[in-house]
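I would love for you to help me understand the pair of lines that follows before we discuss the fold together.
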Amino acid sequence: MSIKAKELISLMNRWAPPSLAEKWDNPGLQVGSPETIVKRVMIALDVTKENVEYAIKHQVDMIISHHPLIFKPLYGINSEEPKGKLITSLLTNNIVSFAAHTNLDSAEEGVNDALAHVLKLTNCIGFVPVRQEVIYELSLHGYAQNESQLKELFSSFQMLLKHDSYQDMIHYSIKVQEGDINKVKEILIKGEEYIHSFEWHKLAHNGHLYTMGRIGELPHIMDGKDALQYIKNCLKIPVLKYSGNSNKRISKIAILGGSGADFAQMAKNIGADMYITGDVKYHQGQDAAASGLLIVDGGHFYTEHVIVPYLAQRLRREAIAKNWDIEWVEDPVAKDIFEYVI
């Protein structure tokens, strides 16, 4: 079954709600029309000259990237400048660009769960609070004769039958997470012939807590140097940079893909022996080591590129379940922007 880009965008927004994005971020549709029919989709860390050329040559219809193509506001598009060339190439070839950035960092099964998966960490929990969802109660009054239709419409939600239901009418209480509000509104429109009335109530207690970063346990306790080599091998990092005592025993590891050095002290406070992130500055490494934490700079690319195969696999499973006719491509030309002299 063929689908449009907007259906993939809707799916990604359910998995990584835009409300989780940092205020300075720009996730979402970057270039193109949501009405575009998509048959071949590339998953990438970045939108680059190299993967756009590949996409054009191999008839890719959509690129889902982690980093947004348009990060800062544009006041014009000059097709002779690097960014303008990319945008022009995408538009000319009818290729949609969509990004899930800091919202995918904080989402369940996002960047940090992908990183934990590659490192085979167990008993993982998040450690940097981002946002706690609000829970609402939908008080729904429907017609008793349509009870089966109502149950089918709201089959993905827990429906509590209220005691004030009576012969001709039936009253349900349905708890709805903030992220499911739009989905429920669509259901209410679809089932309006079965519904007499409804009311929304904001509940006092909070819903799901979204977090960045994870702390978990290695497959077994390792010496510091062995743990460093293990990380280097798992993430296929050519040169691994670290600061701190590499002779200590390592059991608990905190991770945060991308630029997470600001949270080193938080990682230390929750009991991490080692903290893996990217873009660590000199004094950040110095301070972490002084606190007794072994901090590892795995690089921005290597600590986030793990999301590409992880997300591609998740999308493949979803496409099969929904009978979507889509070919998924993991960016075959991706590489770290930095090279090393060894």
